[in-house]
Amino acid sequence: MKEKDKRQMILEAFRASEFKWRTASGLAKDTGLPVLAIESFLEQSPDVTRSKKFNSHGQLLYALKPGVTTAARSEHVFLFQSVPERYDLREKLIPGTRDTWYATRYRRDMCRGDIVFFWLAGEPNYRGIYGWGSLLGLPYQKSEWDSYGVDVQYEVSFREPILASSLVGDNVLREMLIFRAPQATNFLLSSDEANSLLRFLKDRGEELPAIGS
């Protein structure tokens, strides 16, 4: 590559970086979200930021509002797991309240409005899903944790927990990663797993999240 071409590439990269920083700074000021979270949104959603539908500051601001999803991005469905010694969902999962969870995996897949099911690890008599909620924003770095966190709102606490032992009878749900490699906080469900879980919950008469509606 010629030296002139190299300089041009460096200049273009610098301009793109400066544009992203200025855009992120402005959006952060207007939304109150951390600049790093805005930059993460822009990096995760290049298809959105290039779209004619979201080609202005105001439209990007709209995309960052609570509950807003874009046609360019499919909703993701997660399982977040806790252990009772550190965070007991039987006490903590109160509909309408908010909390912050570790975001150690799949951070680039997380976006405001995504649905989260909450799983309590432990003994067979209580291990399972206790309810669901939604992500309130993008993951952000928490210095006191030396890790990333993501804010959630609890929406529904099930009348009775959906025990893991009742899920393994389903051919799809038994293959969820939380059964095969359970040592983590964050799990991303496939569309088949999410749909199977919704059908299972519907048969149990539990309140369902609006996924894909």
From TrEMBL:
<protein>
    <recommendedName>
        <fullName>EVE domain-containing protein</fullName>
    </recommendedName>
</protein>
<feature type="domain" description="EVE">
    <location>
        <begin position="77"/>
        <end position="198"/>
    </location>
</feature>
<dbReference type="InterPro" id="IPR015947">
    <property type="entry name" value="PUA-like_sf"/>
</dbReference>
<dbReference type="InterPro" id="IPR002740">
    <property type="entry name" value="EVE_domain"/>
</dbReference>
<dbReference type="Pfam" id="PF01878">
    <property type="entry name" value="EVE"/>
</dbReference>
